[in-house]
Design goal:
Elements (H helix, E strand, L loop, with lengths): L2 H39 L8 E3 L8 H11 L2 E8 L9 E5 L5 E3 L3 E7 L4 E3 L8 H10 L3 E7 L8 E5 L5 E3 L3 E7 L9 E3 L8 H10 L3 E8 L9 E5 L5 E3 L3 E7 L29
Parallel strand pairs: 2-5, 7-10, 12-15
Antiparallel strand pairs: 1-4, 3-5, 6-9, 8-10, 11-14, 13-15
Length: 281
Amino acid sequence: MNEHGEGRLFAAEGKRRIFLRVTALALAAFAAGYVLTTVVFFPGFGRQAIVTVPDLRGKTLAEARGLASAAGVEVERGDSLFHPSVAAGAVLAQSPLPGQEVTRGSVVRVTLSAGREQRPVPEVEDLPAVQAESLLVRMGFTVSVRRVLSDRAEGRVLSVNPQAGTVLPVGSIVELTLSSGPPPVVVQTVAVPDIGGMPEPAAREALRSAGLRLGEVRYEQGLPVPLGGVASQSPAAGDSVRAGSPVNVVVSGSPPTGVDAPSPPPPAPDSAAPAADQTPP
């Protein structure tokens, strides 16, 4: 082969090598672009198209998002609701429900707990017990009652613990202190002494010493006791009566002079003079 022929052969071989390199670069660029497009615009490509919704209840929002991402779904936060037992910030409910099958990339909407609702203690002092308890129960509180002696009317609310205006979680205990009325009056009783046969002055003194007093005194004649002595008494000797009570007696004989004498009538006014005294001339 002459030099001319060898030059053409080398030129052809160079073109073939350049073509192969360009082709390889084009294929590599296509593959890289395909992979990049698939990752950016079709993140679920090559993975299972249907996934199962995980149970997010009781999890914090961050925990729920982590579980959802691992399962192939997304989390969207919804409203918050009060709940007596689920801690604030935890997932209270979700839609779709746990275990349902959805397409990859679907959105799971979660409702978070706002914790226990809180309310202020109402003003119930001085209300009747029934009304105060009814109001507290309607507001969601639990009522505890204690009773103490007081000059206030029985059943009235004397105090509230915690005091009115205190903000408490619904279901908390509120203690009412109620009046059970004034303390009972202690009645002192004494035994009636036997004053039979005593003269009236001695009987009066004996009753006074016993914490009693002489009541009505009546006189009768012909009684089987010395004159001036107490023939009978009421209450009887030995009876138990309230201190300061009167004891009525019957005394033998006639009353002292002037005891039962009627009072003299008042003098008649001049205008009441009889007309017979005014005789005509």
